[in-house]
């Protein structure tokens, strides 16, 4: 199995992504780092440890990452979407396991040496930890096989500003540094994550499962489904973070994922946090981009929801 480091701001859809990674024999989850976003990085670690305990996976180290972003403090999160505690205000049984004593940056660097050339980095929160790891050791990309990042909006509107997606906007400076680094980066933006959803039938299947983690995920999704009524018109949700996990696992394959230059706007104007992908190239073929290592996922080969529910419930 491919070794995976998971960087998250757990988070409702982060929880679903974590459960999918745990249920997937194609990969080995070798470490988790947390970052502030949906909640602060300490609460995200608590949620992650509690979810791991429900799956009896206390062997996975969870390291608390950056509390604040590169240029500004964490803003407190989004309680109306992910709940005050990040897991939809569901009270999970508290795991007796404490976070790893290392920072998320140190854990990532250690894992990059232990699994040099093989480590797959999956990020589903702001990119603060990755940027700090790059600053601490600019040779990191040489030891990372690939980075799969949920973030951005290539051709569709943003979800936190008119043009910006939350993970990128929350630390635009970090995202710009990660996009500039020379590693194979697969960006999984809103363009494609909004096309993959869970509905009430899926949630019922989770709640009916014999597995404690699946049932907890069913509970956690309740509040999140309320938020999406405004977007989709029904109680349901997008599968943002789970889609990045599924692509890293190989469960879902991108069918349209052009390798094009990606620039993240880290300025302070109305474009802050925008992911500017030069999508002229694959359409016209008249612009050549040698050496580009960033792929922007725009479509996939199958629907994630059925395979996700099967993996989580069996
Ligand atoms: C992203 O923002 C977070 O709130 C979600 O967990 C997801 O990672 C979607 O824009
Ligand atoms: Ca997230």
From TrEMBL:
Q: Which GO terms describe its molecular function?
A: purine nucleosidase activity
Q: InterPro entries, per this entry? A: Inosine/uridine_hydrolase_dom, IUNH, Ribo_hydro-like
Listed A to Z, the keywords are: Glycosidase, Hydrolase
Under Gene3D superfamilies, the record lists:
Ribonucleoside hydrolase-like
Gene Ontology cellular component terms for the protein in this record: cytosol
Where does the Inosine/uridine-preferring nucleoside hydrolase domain start and stop, copy by copy? 4-301
Enzyme Commission code(s) on record? 3.2.-.-
GO terms, biological process: purine nucleoside catabolic process
Primary enzyme class: hydrolase
A Pfam family it matches:
IU_nuc_hydro
Q: Which PANTHER family match?
A: INOSINE-URIDINE PREFERRING NUCLEOSIDE HYDROLASE, URIDINE NUCLEOSIDASE
The name on file for this protein is Nucleoside hydrolase
Q: Which organism is it from?
A: Microbacterium ginsengisoli
Report which gene this protein is encoded by.
rihA_1
């Amino acid at each position: 199995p491919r070794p995976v480091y998971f960087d998250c701001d757990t988070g409702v859809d982060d929880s679903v992504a974590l459960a999918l990674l745990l249920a997937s024999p194609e990969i080995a989850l070798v470490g988790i780092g947390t970052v502030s976003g949906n909640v602060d990085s300490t609460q995200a670690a608590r949620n992650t440890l509690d979810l791991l305990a429900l799956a009896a996976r206390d062997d996975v180290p969870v390291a608390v990452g950056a509390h604040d972003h590169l240029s500004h403090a964490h803003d407190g999160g989004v309680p109306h979407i992910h709940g005050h505690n990040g897991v939809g205000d569901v009270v999970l049984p508290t795991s007796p396991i404490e976070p790893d004593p290392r920072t998320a940056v140190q854990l990532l660097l250690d894992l990059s040496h232990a699994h040099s050339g093989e480590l797959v980095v999956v990020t589903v929160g702001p990119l603060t930890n990755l940027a700090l790891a790059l600053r601490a050791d600019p040779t990191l990309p040489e030891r990372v096989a690939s980075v799969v990042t949920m973030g951005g909006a290539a051709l569709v509107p943003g979800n936190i500003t008119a043009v910006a997606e939350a993970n990128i906007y929350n630390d635009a400076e970090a995202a710009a540094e990660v996009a500039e680094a020379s590693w194979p980066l697969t960006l999984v933006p809103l363009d494609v994550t909004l096309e993959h959803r869970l509905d009430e039938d899926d949630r019922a299947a989770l709640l009916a499962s014999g597995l404690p983690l699946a049932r907890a995920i069913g509970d956690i999704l309740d509040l999140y489904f309320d938020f999406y009524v405004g977007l989709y018109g029904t109680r349901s949700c997008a599968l943002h973070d789970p889609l990045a996990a599924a692509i890293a696992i190989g469960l879902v394959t991108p069918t349209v994922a052009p390798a094009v230059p990606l620039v993240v706007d880290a300025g302070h104007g109305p474009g802050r946090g925008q992911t500017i992908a030069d999508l002229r190239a694959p359409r016209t073929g008249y612009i050549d981009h040698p050496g580009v290592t960033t792929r922007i996922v725009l479509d996939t080969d199958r629907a994630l929801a059925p395979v996700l529910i099967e993996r989580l419930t069996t």
